Amino acid sequence: MTRPELRLILLGFFLISASSAPVKKIFTGKETRKTQDVNIYSFYINSTVTSRYATTIITSRVANRLNESQEIFFEVKIPKNAFISKFRMTIDGKSYDGVVKEKADAQQQYSQAVSRGQSAGLIKSVGRTLEEFKTSVNVAALSKVTFELTYEELLTRRLGKYELLINAQPMQTVADFKIDVHIHEKPGISFLEVKGGLSTNDLANAIKTTRADSDAWVTFYPTREQQTKCKDCDKNGLKGDLLISYDVERQNPNGEMKVSNGYFVHNFAPLDLPRIPKNVVFIIDRSGSMHGKKIEQTRLALLKILSDLSEDDHFGLITFDSRVDLWKRELLKATKTNLDDAKSFVKKITDRGSTDINAAVLEGVNMFKRQPQAGSASILILLTDGDPTSGETNTERIMSNVRKAIGSKFPLYCLGFGYDVNFDFLTKMSLENNGVARRIYEDSDADLQLQGFYDEVAVPLLTDIQLNYKGVSNLTQTNFALYFNGSEIVVSGQITDNNVESISTEVIAISKGSKVTYQNTVTTKDVIDVPSEHEDFVERLWAYLTVKQLLDKHVLLEGPEKEAVKNEALKLSLKYQFVTSLTSMVVTKPQEGDVEVADKPKEGKESHRPPVSSYPPLPPRIGYGLSAGSGFPGRIGQYGPPPYPGHQGRPGLPGQPGHPGYHGILRRPDWSSGSAGVIMSQLDSESEADLGISYVMKTPIMAPTHVTRKLVAPTQSVPAVRNNRFLLPADGQTKPLCFDVPIPHKLKLLQDSALGFSMNGESMAKTGFQQITIHYKTNHHLTINTNSINYNDGQNNVQYLWGQEPSQHDQEGIILILRDNEMDVTIGSIRVVIVLHKKRGDVFLWPVVWQQPENVTLAGILGKDKISYEEIQGSTLKIMDNDVKASWDEMPDYRFPSAPVVRCWLVPFQAVMNGEISDFTVTHL
Ligand SMILES: *[C@@H]1O[C@H](CO)[C@@H](O)[C@H](O)[C@H]1NC(C)=O
Ligand SMILES: *[C@@H]1O[C@H](CO)[C@@H](O)[C@H](O)[C@H]1NC(C)=O
Ligand SMILES: *[C@@H]1O[C@H](CO)[C@@H](O)[C@H](O)[C@H]1NC(C)=O
Question: Among 198, 557, 840, 909, which has the highest number of CB atoms less than 10 A from its own CB?
Answer without folding.
Answer: 198
